[in-house]
Each structure stands twice: as C-alpha cells, then as structure tokens.
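pasting for the record
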Amino acid sequence: MVFSSTVFVFQFLPICLAIYFGVWWASRKLLFANLALIALSLAFYLIGSGYLVLLLLFSIVLNFGLGRLIVRTQGPRRKLYLAAGIVANLAILIYFKYAGFILGSIAGAAAAAGVNLPLHTLSIALPVGISFYTFMGISYLVQVYGSRDDAPNVLDFALYLSLFPHLVAGPIVRFSELRDAIVERTVGSEIFFEGVFRFSMGMARKVVIADTLALQADRIFALPPSELTPAIAWTGAVCYAFQIFFDFSGYTDMAIGLAKMLGFNFPENFNQPYTAASVTEFWRRWHMTLTRWFRDYVYIPLGGNRRGGARTYLNLFTVFFLCGLWHGAAWTFVAWGMYHGVLLVIERALKTTVGFSARGLGGIVVTFVLVTFGWVFFRSTTIVGAFAFLGRMLGLGAQTIANHQLADFLTPSTITYLALAAVLAFGPSYFWNRLQDNTRTICFKGAFATLALFLSVAYVSETTFRPFIYFRF
C-alpha cells in the first residue's frame, strides 16, 4: 500500500486518523495514542508486506535491547555490543537484499573464467523499506553509544522505528529528532492543515508530474539502441531525471505531511537539488538524510578529509560505492554510485590543486547534464544497456532501424509536463513556505491543496498505478 493510492487516501488514512485522534481524545493519554499509532503502523506494514512484519518486530527488539545493554555497560564491552548491533543489522540487510546478488555474481565470474560452480540463485522476498529501517536502527545504536541517551521504553522505540510515514522509504530520521515528540506533543489545527497541504502537494508531484513523464521514459528506455536517435535518447534521460526527482521528493513531501498531521516534524530530504552548481552541492541537496548518514557513519569514521588528499579521495569513492550498492542489488546501481564517486573526487581535486569550483548558471547546466548521465545507469537494467544508451546520447553508433521519430515521444503533452517540471525543479524553493500565515494565504493554500488532491485522484483513476521508485530499496 502506497501513499498515492486511492486505498490509502480514502480508506486507510481516514480510518487511521479517526482511531488515532479518537483514542487520544477519549483517553486524554499520549501513551494510548502512541499505542494506537504503533498498531496502525504495524497494520500498514502488514498490509503491504505480510509476514515480513515479523522482521520489523525483530529489528525493534534487537536494537532496543542492544541499546539498553550499551547504556548499562561499562568498559570495552560497550564497544563490543555496538559492533554486534551493527553487524547484526547489516547481516539481516545483506541476507534479504544481497544474498542472491552475491551468489549470482560469484557464479557469473566463475563461469567467465571457465569454472562451473554449483551455486543456486536464492529467491528471497525483499522486505519493503528494509534499507531505511536498518539504517535507522544503526544510527540509534551509534547515538546511544555516544550519548547514553536511549529510548525511555520499548514502546517509544517501537514507535520511532515503525512510524508508518517514514517506514518504507524514509526520510532516515534519527531518534533524537523524534524523541521529544514521542513523549510529549500536541496537534493543533494549523500544523494539521500544514500537513494536509504538504501531503496534497507531494501527491501531485508524484502522480501528476512524475507518473506522466514516466510514460515516455519507460517507452524510450524499452527501445533497443538501434532505434534511438541522440534526440530521443536525451528525451528519455531528461524525462527520467525529472521523474525520479518528483517521484522521490513527492513521496518525501507526503511523508512529511503525514507526520505533521500526527504531530511529528521530519527533517527535509530535498532542497532543489537540480539548482546545484556542482555534484558536491547536488549531494548536499539530494536525499539529504541518506547523505548525512553516510557522512556521519562511514565517511568520518574512515577518516574523512583529515588524512591527506589520497585518503580523502579513497574515502569519497568508498562512500559512493556503498551508496550505489545501498540503492539496489545490481551492478547498475554500483556503477551509478562509482560514477558519482569519481565526479566528486574530480571536483575535490580541481578545488584543492588549482582552486577551481564550478558556480553560476554554467555550473548548474553542467551539473544537471552530468547527473542526468548518471541516471541512465540507475534506470537501466544492465551495464551493457546503460553504456549503449549513453552512446546514443553522445551520438556514438548508428541508428540502424528508424521506426520512431522524436515527435512520437516529445508530444505537446510531454513538452508541457517537462516545462512544468523544469519550472518547479529549477525555480526558487517553495514560495508558499515564505508566505505569512493569515486568512488570505490559508484560503489560498487550502484551495491549492484541494485542486492538487483532486487532480491527483483523477490521474490515479485514469492511469496505470505506479509505486514509488524508492519503495524497492
């Protein structure tokens, strides 16, 4: 069940809000409201993943228990418990997400060397959101180790890890960011209204823009390279660049909006990333909660930039190799991560050696082109297919079969949605965030949210259902 489905909007969400606020109002106790929210969150996950909800429950018990051991233990055993928690979390993630990929890669490499290994590809159901709640569990253990500030009780921690707005695709929220709201919060009409507005705008970004552009992106990426002209290939790549941005940022807006309705404030996850003038700046603006996770728990522990230029470059490359692998068990994701790692190393080397830093409109254009190139690896199903697609974008190779013209894909409708996407992606940050709260702006936001929600529901009713891209991770 995804946030942009009519089942969620018209069935689960109203029932959830009615139960949550009904229990809170009737009991006058936040504890009972939290219990209701835990039950609703587990029900949300159960509907989408079935018995795999047991893995989420195990993760809750595991990380809370180890956190308690870390807090109550003195001496070197504290570090041992921390290491055990990190290993346990990663082991679960590796088994469910990467076991088949690892065995398949080993068997493929052996076959290329002329060796037949009797390895069987595993068919393991991938728990939705496991990459997100695993990283949240690790961040909790590291926080507890550093500050000895753990959850007051297992129910508080269960609410933190299972809270359904962030459960399946982030943002990657730290316990310290929700702790105060878990133990004491209020939900007034203003913050609830802001939540509804943010949710509605996010749904429109996902359903109206991302899903519409996905139609042409899917058509173009499905073509064999022999049927691609450079113009058609570029159209497909740009459509996908906007699709993935509005898909994931739309989900984030919906998650933040849902959290506000429930009385929680999630960290922002996007800050107009396509206005970045460098790839380094792009990663400060794109999926910001993931970037800071890798910065704090991988890059800095590896030494960051404190051990000389060569080590800094290695650390950057390692982080983005792992970042690519985190996104999916496929070599295309690894290649995407390594591509960004190389770009970041080049940018840092240019800055430290000759003092060059990209800036201005030229930097924005170049960065968007480089990032769009990278999305081809992310979208493609094979490395060979990605390089073939990139080759056609660069005009390499020949179009041997001319079954399609650019006009078949770059229709007036597609041009309209690309223009809308460009205005929103390259324009200033959401102007309504700077509006003064008064009767006029509240009415304006209400009307805008109603229109956005109406259009979204209409699009969902008329088009093929598309889950969020990051639900796979």
